[in-house]
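Dear colleague,

Following up on Tuesday's group meeting, I ran the structure prediction for the two-component complex that the binding team flagged. I've pasted the input sequences exactly as they went in, so you can double-check that nothing got truncated or mislabelled along the way. The structure tokens for the whole assembly follow below. Feel free to forward this to whoever is handling the docking comparison.

Inputs:
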Amino acid sequence: MKKVVSETSGPVFSLPWFVAKDEGFFQEEGIDMEFVESLAVKVDHHTTNPEEVDPILGHTPFEDQQVAIYRA
Amino acid sequence: MVRAESEHYYPSSLANKPIAVQFHAGSHYTVLRLLEGYIPAGKINLLHYGSPRYRFEAMMNGEVDAAMLMEPWISLAEKNGCRSVCEGHYLGAENASDNMDEETFTAINRAVVKAVDLINSDKKRFLHYLIDWPRFAEAAADWGGLTVDDFHLPRLRYAHPRPYTEEQLEDTYNWMVRWDLLNAAVCATDYVDNRDAEAIAADD
């Protein structure tokens, strides 16, 4: 089995991945899939300027190389 | 989405009104695409509120006139009397790191294809993933929660993984440069590498 760690986002987006894991579809492909949830983004300053916001947002597991794949 | 008592029934009246989004995410780009057909760019007033829970709560408590939401937050808002003033759909894809080999990426996507087909065969069966997601369930409990019968199923759209076409990539790149969301000095192919995705499409 090949180990793969994937970042998940909101369940409406990651649903096929959750189902693929729970139904054994990844396992059938020889993939041992582990999920790491992206971080929720909560801000106190509600800026109107996109340049003040780090575009990485909650995708830090991918940026930190904890996961090999993420959805955007 | 807007609150039940809101005066907004169509996009044009949202000119200059605060709208909660998450900058640099789908809610940001989709709301620009939806509103630019109704409102001049200078009158689209977006505020960064982060994740959907905080956008939903900002709308419900009146901090903003509208919020850009996705499911299951849309269904929760509708259950609480809120309404949509415009809706759009966008394409999402998986991004793999440089060390993901083609064989593994293809195997992953074969599994995802099976899951997509299973979901589309009976969407209600899988709604519990959305309803019971801890980040959602905790917040939704304060707003009456959701059941599978609260969803409008055609809104949930799942398709097989596929690469962006060159035309989609180029059009999106030009749109982002026009909105000053990308540096025009960098070309579109610097951002998207479709090599593995193309291999998957060939195997489908």
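The beta strands of chain B are 18-21, 45-48, 66-67, 94-96.

Cheers,
M.
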